[in-house]
Protein 1
Amino acid sequence: MKNKLILLSCSCLFLSSCIGHETGTTDLQKFITHEKAKSPPPIEEVPIFPAIAQFPYVGDDRRDPFDTGEGDAPPSPTSDPTFRITIPDEVRNHPREELEGFSLDSLSMQGTLMIKGIKWVLIKDPDGTLHRVKQGNYMGKNYGRIINISEEKIILAEYFQGQNGYEPRQSEIALENL
């Protein structure tokens, strides 16, 4: 009961202090009316920029300089009927694997494992995901097939476009120094 009485008297005291003291806000009211009476500053006009001359790219027979080549698959018989293919059918028609969606320079070798007599390699993709691959798996955008695994590197056989079709070449991915 005593606590309720103290609380009631404090709230009455607080409310009474808010009533009847409007004289302290007259300077604030004058400032507000003075500011509202002022005209707003003028808005600057938007500058007019000169038109930039446009030039069409006329190079139908040349490579597009703005094309990065990311995501482009190597030419196939359906895209160019005159192109002579020298990629073996078992390589060209194999089921696509996940690491074939990345270029080799974006992949890094993290280490090797031996599980039940099979040597596996841990490969990290650009997203930071680790993949486990072994000899015979494919990776990279140029039909890269793992042909040799050592503790320090993996060797891949890739097919690159040459003058007379595709030419096989070897590529390496070395163990990343952590």
Note: The chain has a mean pLDDT of 81.
Protein 2
Amino acid sequence: MDCAPRRDARRAGRWGGAMTVNLTQMYETKTEEAFRQSPPGMAHFAGTLGEDKTCRSCQNFQSNGHYSRSANRTKVHTLKPGSCSEFERLMKKRGPAIPHGTAACSHFAENPKPPKAMTP
């Protein structure tokens, strides 16, 4: 009988959640849920503000304008994804565009004139 700890048991502590013998997650931690909901390019985890605010109403959201045409006309006049200036300040590079409806992070700063989600 081998007395050394099993390889999967050593990995379980590194991933932060309880693991079964087959390395499947038994439950999801709050950090993992926040990580899964956060698109790349956000300054912090999505939803960490705790209010019903979105990236669109934040001063750090840099809008790329609205769609003017679409192949199937489903996105016409809707707000394009934009980048986060706080992410750019922290990382010293421009991040990928994030959807405007993403839950706001802890770096949220209220924008007095947020861009409209749709144009007429």
Note: Residues 8-15 have pLDDT under 50 and may be disordered.
